[in-house]
Write a structure and sequence with these properties.
The chain is of the alpha/beta class. It has an 8-stranded mixed sheet, with helices on both faces. A hairpin with a 4-residue loop joins strand 13 (410-415) and strand 14 (420-428). The structure holds ligand NA7. Ligand NA7 is lined by residues 433, 439, 472-478, 495, 497-498, 622, 643, 648, 671-674, 786, 791.
């Protein structure tokens, strides 16, 4: 969403009655641009401001730290020294660099390559006069916005062969390509200061001959390897957004150090408009890049899913400067990535939602009992907008390393693109189910059809209609996807290694009266959830059954299970008695009940038997929640393939070969799960005190205190880390509990002038022992589940979540805080 100041600017512009740019002549457009000069103000005083051969020289101080050759925007058609004078001055003052504002020839009087030639001449002139301008040898920097960003990129490429040496290229929403059909061109909300029609108008004037446009497009260069380090700024609401980001990505791929930031809530032109809040932030960003100093924040948060969004809101509200780094191109975390057909949460929507804002609770209208992925993503996008979170989130930014600096007591965070940050606190909000697992099956490259992992499903969807589809995996994901795929595809082959227990969702639209009743009673509902076993009101100790499955008559047991089945949902059967998770015989009664249900639904007895799980107690692997899963096997176009007895051998050009047959397929779907709980954190090279790698510390399995901290890694917080209830609970509730605890802890440190907090080894050892002890008292460790790390070859087998229940766990965490953060050591420097 556009921020308020930008929306105000657009409204004023609309009131002025100025026709759209592309309806004007170039002369009229230039006059309109020049009339906006007053908006920019005069800009700060300079030590020297004089016109030179190639433009205007702006020198802010006697000892400049560099010289920036600046190419102004304006689509190669408009813009000039006077319009950009104020920006040049602000840039010079903020960076301490001299600025050469380049006056290049404009189109259509002078078409491509005139502007590029002038840009090059200006670079040569500046290089030759560098010492005279700065009074000493200093770095040469090229920069530009919009079409000027294009010129900066073009001269940076040209200088690669014969110099001069450029220390940095600063590309502000640059034009990098002549393709005007990228998504950002087509989104209606981006047609602001300039839209698609204006860009067409610019290109038509600059390079009317379409054949030469490619050579004017820096993105079309064969390779970007060997280019100077780059800083790329893009705006969320800008037709140029995607090509700027494509350029940043290619630079990184070709080995160039690039720091990219997308400015949320901003539109094209924000960099040059000093009244807009994004403008100052963008200048800061550029200045820091020129300094070579990493940007410093009180807290870096890794991930912008449910955890990262709330962490940002909570910590920013506490007065901290926060930056969220997110690898995806949108917020939402696991709900951003898992867009496969049928993706749906297995916790009811009214509980799987934030409780921190009563207004949000009341405003948001869930439409179904179990929310589908698009609705959850809409909710998270709404939260990001409603709490103005986007301006502190860097998208498309994957964290590569987080290294603790003992001496300065800060975290150094580096992204894959080479951007560097420092932070006092590092909050790992990267999720429990974020790192997709795709088994190493031979022959993937040979397969001539298309293949997808469900957790990297294309945003635009996949055409399954009329296709022969193979699905590998029958966990929650496969079980949700298979009925949906069967309804579209010509044929679905399900490659099942281990069957799972699945309960009916009985999903339905939410009755408005029910929703009203929930909203009227939300505080009480949340209280019950907080004190419960798994973070939903129905698992509160006051309502959980007190009876053993073995102490009741078989008829009564059957009645209770039938009731649970009819109600549906994850705990319908496993929470029906108090000993199903701990007593194998009690568990057997529940498992038998579900197996009988499968046999009753699936008509072919052999298929029914193959779908009956027998190798793990019910509930010890995540119970699936489905819509028509078992009944789907009654369709003629669905075939179950048992790959336990005849394993997958390889993929072939035509499909999947098992030990007994080859299956011809057009599409293969990997519904093969995640490197769960620890995968995302360990994907980052996290190093604590004395450079100790987290990977090494956790080589025998994760070790944490309360699942929120780990000894040897001061000021590092894990949101729903291993050793906390996490995936065995309603994640949103557990996330809020952790983030609140972390925010309170940081508040405690700041109030007392303390610099670091770190779990002690003793407290950690005791907690790990407790987590194991609780797990050992249940049947959970008997299953080769992803809770145990058993789905990933080579991963240590350790039961990772805490089974003590969210109510008990919360009380324990509050006790730790109440006792002055017992089990932690704190330092003041
Ligand atoms: P899961 O529950 O880990 O399921 C993955 C499935 O993929 C499971 O059936 C696996 O069989 C199967 N798999 C994995 N590798 C192979 C190979 N090599 N061959 C055949 N089958 C294979 O992941 P989901 O995405 O379904 O669900 C994860 C959680 O997300 C879920 O519990 C909810 O909480 C949300 P296996 O059991 O290993 O024999």
């Amino acid at each position: 969403m556009l921020d308020e100041a930008s929306a105000g600017f657009i409204a004023t512009l609309a009131e002025s009655g100025l026709p759209p740019l592309h309806e004007l002549s170039p002369l009229q457009a230039r006059a309109a641009g020049a009339a906006l000069v007053e908006l920019h103000g005069p800009g700060p005083e300079m030590l020297r401001a004089e016109d030179v051969d190639c433009g205007r020289l702006l020198v802010p101080t006697e000892r400049c730290r560099g010289v920036i050759v600046y190419y102004h925007g304006g689509g190669w058609v408009t813009g000039g020294l006077d319009e950009f004078d104020a920006l040049g001055r602000r840039l010079a003052q903020r960076t301490g660099c001299a600025v050469v504002l380049v006056d290049y020839r404009l189109a259509p009087e002078h078409r491509y390559p005139a502007a590029a030639e002038d840009a090059w001449t200006a670079l040569q002139w500046t290089a030759a006069n560098l010492e005279e301008i700065a009074g000493r040898p200093v770095p040469l920097i090229v920069a530009g916005d919009s079409a000027g960003g294009c010129l900066a990129a073009v001269v940076a490429q040209r200088s690669r062969e014969a110099g001069p040496e450029i220390a940095l290229q600063v590309l502000v929403y640059p034009v990098t390509d002549c393709d005007l059909d990228r998504d950002s061109y087509l989104e209606p909300e981006n047609q602001l200061i300039i839209g698609r029609a204006a860009m067409e108008w610019f290109w038509d004037h600059y390079a009317p001959d379409r054949a030469v446009r490619a050579s004017a497009s820096p993105l079309r260069a064969q390779t970007l390897a060997g280019l100077p380090p780059a800083v790329v700024l893009t705006a969320e609401h800008d037709v140029l957004r995607d090509e700027g980001e494509a350029y940043a990505r290619r630079l990184a791929e070709d080995g160039v150090r690039v720091e990219h930031r997308r400015f949320g809530g901003q539109m094209h032109g924000f960099f040059t408009l000093p009244g807009l809040p994004g403008s100052a932030a963008a200048l800061d960003f550029v200045a820091q890049a020129i300094d070579g100093e990493p940007s410093h924040f009180d807290a870096i948060v890794v991930g912008a899913g449910f955890s990262g969004l709330y962490a940002l809101h909570r910590l920013r509200g506490a007065g901290l400067s926060v930056r969220v780094l997110e690898q995806g191109d949108g917020v939402g975390g696991t709900w951003h990535w898992n867009r496969y057909p049928g993706a749906r949460c297995d916790i009811e929507s009214v509980d799987y939602s934030y409780s921190f804002s009563e207004e949000l609770e009341q405003e948001w209208e869930w439409s179904e009992r179990y929310p589908a992925q698009p609705e959850i993503l809409r909710y998270l996008d709404h939260v990001a907008d409603r709490f103005d979170l986007r301006r502190d989130i860097d998208l498309n930014t994957r964290v590569a390393q987080a290294r603790y600096d003992d001496e300065r007591a800060v975290w150094h965070v580096t992204t894959e693109g080479g951007a560097r940050y420092t932070a006092t606190y590092c909050v790992m909000a990267c999720g429990n189910l974020s790192t997709p697992h795709r088994p190493a099956i031979e022959g993937l490259d040979d397969f001539e059809g298309d293949w997808y992992h469900t957790a990297r499903w294309p945003a635009g969807g996949v055409e399954l209609a009329g296709k022969r589809v193979g699905v590998i995996g029958t966990g929650s994901t496969g079980i949700q996807l298979i009925p949906q795929a069967a309804a579209q595809a010509e044929h679905v082959h399900v490659f099942q290694r281990t069957p799972n227990f699945s309960m009916p969702a009985h999903n339905r639209p939410l009755d408005p009266d029910l929703l009203r009743a929930v909203k009227a009673d939300y505080r009480e509902r949340r209280r019950l959830a907080r004190e419960s076993l798994s973070g939903v009101p129905s698992s509160h100790p006051d309502v959980l059954p007190q009876r053993s499955a073995l102490e009741v008559a078989p008829e009564e047991r059957a009645r209770v299970y039938e009731h649970g089945w009819a109600n549906g949902g994850i705990g319908g059967v496993t929470l029906a008695f108090n000993d199903i998770n701990v007593n194998a015989d009690a568990n057997g009664t529940a498992a038998d009940f579900v197996r009988d249900k499968i046999r009753a639904i699936v008509r072919d007895p052999a298929t029914a038997e193959a779908l009956c799980p027998t190798t793990h107690p019910i509930g010890t692997k995540r119970i699936c929640v489905d819509t028509d899963y078992y009944a789907t096997y009654n369709r003629d176009n669905v075939t179950l393939v048992d790959v336990r007895s005849a394993p997958i051998v390889r993929l072939t050009p035509r499909g999947i070969e098992t030990a007994s047959a080859e299956y011809e397929l057009d599409v293969i779907v990997f519904a093969t799960g995640f490197d769960a709980i620890t995968g995302a954190v360990l994907d980052i090279d996290v190093r604590g005190r004395d450079g100790e790698p987290l990977k090494k510390k956790w080589s025998g399995g994760p070790r944490t205190y309360l699942g929120v901290a780990t000894a040897g890694f001061p000021n590092l917080f894990l949101v729903t880390g291993p050793g906390s209830p996490s995936v065995l609970s309603n994640m949103v509730l557990s996330i809020e509990q952790h983030v609140d605890w972390i925010a309170d802890c940081i508040g405690h440190l700041r109030e007392r002038g303390l610099d670091t907090i770190e779990a002690t080894r003793d407290a950690e050892d005791a907690w790990v022992a407790h987590v194991n002890e609780v797990a050992e008292a249940t049947l959970f460790p008997r299953a080769g589940s992803w809770y145990m790390g058993a789905n990933i070859p080579g991963k240590p087998r350790v039961f990772m979540p805490y089974l003590g229940g969210v109510g008990n766990y919360r009380t324990h965490c509050e006790g730790v805080a109440g006792n002055g953060y017992e089990g932690f050591s704190v330092t003041a420097r």
